[in-house]
Write a structure and sequence with these properties.
heterodimer, A: alpha/beta, Rossmann fold, 2 domains, B: alpha/beta, four-stranded parallel β-sheet
Chain lengths: ~375, ~425
Amino acid sequence: MFIASDALTAAFDDAFARLGESAEDDRGVVVTSWPSLPVEIVRACRLRLVVARGSRAETPAADAQLEPGLFPSRIRQLVDAALTRRLAHVAQVVIPRTSDPDYKCFLYLREFVRTGVAHALAPTTLFDLLHSDGTHVRRYDRERTRVLVDVLADVSGHRPSDEELWQEMALTDAADAAARRLAALRRGIPQIKGTAVFPLLGARWHIPPREYVSLANQAADQFENGPFVRGPRVVLAGAPVDGTELHAAVESRGGVVVNEHSAWSCVEAGADIRSEAEPLSALAELYRRRSIGPRLPAPTPEWTARAFASADAVVVSLPDDDATFGWDYPALRDRLQEWEIPHVVLRGDPHRSLSPDDGHRLEALLDTANRYRPSHHE
Amino acid sequence: MSDKQLGVTAAASAFQKEWFAQLRQRVFERREPYALVQADVPFELFDLLDIPAVSNQWWAAMIAAKQQAPGLLDAMEADGLHDGLCRYCSLGYASMRYRDAAQAPWGGLPPPRLLCARLTCDCIRRVFSLWADTCGAEFVAIDHAGACELRAEWWTLGRRRWRELVEPHRLAFTVAALEVLVARLEAISGRRLDRDALRDRLDRVNQQEEIFDEVRRLIADAPRCPVRMTEQISNVMATQWVRGSDWALSHARQFRDEVKHRVDAGVAACPGERVRLMWVGAGLWHDTDFYTAFEASHGATFVWSMYLAFGPDGYIRYGLDDPMAALASRTASFNEYLHNPPWAPDWIAHQAVEHRIDAAVVLRPRSMKPSASGRLFIERALERAGVAVLPIEADVVDARAWNPDAARAAVRAFLDERMRA
């Protein structure tokens, strides 16, 4: 029997892992390192986006070339794929400027090609969208977005019209609306676990939007009629997550993850930004403001209040490679204490099993949440 | 602390102390504005608009050298800031955020009117925003456009062909970002930036860096290194923070003359020099004696660090018709020059050959992630150039995990092995 949620989960889980299996399938693929690349442009150029994700898979080729402790798992996975020829046939590799490790990844990939360390790698480009404020930044971002269109149009042989770009934005809106229906299942007493819903939300980066709308709505129907999920409501904060391992660690101990800091699952409405006169400015502005990553400003107090409004407990993930989100922690801790929401900081790689110590601390957190904040999940 | 071998070194230290005392006086007594800035921002703009600028890295180095960092670092950790966050860029913030945790050098930083930093590494926006909040000051961020094309041998292109070196879109963006900074500085100072004065200042910076180029040449060509690396750094950096000023030019000339005199007289920093070393990375500010610790035992002299060499290669810009563009071309790629492949490894390997370096000690910074990146490329480039490499793990301002005896023993063992070979 076809199950929509399985199809979505497979699209989320497998898209990057399957690169290199079929040269024919790979030829229409644009690979990127984080969901901060305007997928609308990729689709309008008649290409397909695949975003690298962190995982437990070993990365020996990357480990020989990358300094330890600097690069998140997703970058190591991407570099490993590049060095083992799994990206040889993709149409283009586009690295967004979401973080310094992403930028370094771009420079390293170029150097690997120049020095012959990477023998077969698709053309690689930097999408240098900046996230600070100012008219000069917006002008620059608009221009870099135009260059991205040029690069992808040259690769695909199809140069999208403004109309096609607007249309793709409208399709994204529809996909986001369907994703919001799934996200709504996490409100109140959730009807879906975080482990289950995160891939369903993330799949919209990999699946054509019309197909996504259909599958997401089917999945929402499926879960809306399902049982409620009991347990302390947990929010994942700190460094953005790109997989479900941390969700699984929480949920295997009786909690349920109801929100997380991640570009994969963020489905805020963006219609207000469409007032731009032409699509490239609209897209540049959309991604300048709404991406999630280390180069963006710290979350505002309003955002924090909204994100933690219904949390019984918070898990703050600050892995070894974190250079940024740890700076937000003292203010976050003070707010959580003010709101009497218990929290724990985990320093391990979120894609790996928890250390025994971290496991005990997580259990203690959920125990505290169960004892002192039972009202939200009765 | 090693004895100073050059007379000018004491003069450089005295100047900095006096400059800082005057800054405190200006701020506390006359309520004048000053700025706390990252080392890679264009200090010239601040100076021309009469807003003194204090380098964040210089201040962090001062705190570490005075052995005041551990208390601040403990306070950061007690406040929940994990040990993987950059300490070098944030120690100055800690010195104002956790004032009671240490004795600040020279009376401490007065409250700044503004902070300014280029958004190179990811932590900068966070650190400077927190710092600005702590001081009730304004933070002016200069965003950093990423490089797509990195042309070979940047150090040969930078002086006259800088328009080719920096991609046009990056150059235009950096100019625009600097103009935004100028507008803020003008608003704060109530003065207008004189573009002719900027051109003149950049010309004087060129003169200063040409003098440093002479010094570098003297050091590279002398049979034995005439001036210790630590004294190179003291003299160069004291002038770089006020580059192009009368004092800076005068001091640079005095420094050059004293080095030349030593070369002419056959005076060596280490008379028994047998091994020429280079230090790759920021200075080990909490233990600068490390750099002279191998002279007596092995005749091993640290000849090179980036601090002197980067001045002439990174700063000189000829063709000042559009001074803001020339300044932007220098500013745009600091990070890439010093840390990223292919620019950093190629340059450092080239410098190693020019200076007849036998072995390199390469810093593996514990917490400075951007500085730690590119390190493997640098190590391999040096090895390809025939330079033996010893990586050494340390934090440049955090002495708490630094074992000076073990580090010295590791270098001695490395030198023993190299000398046997």
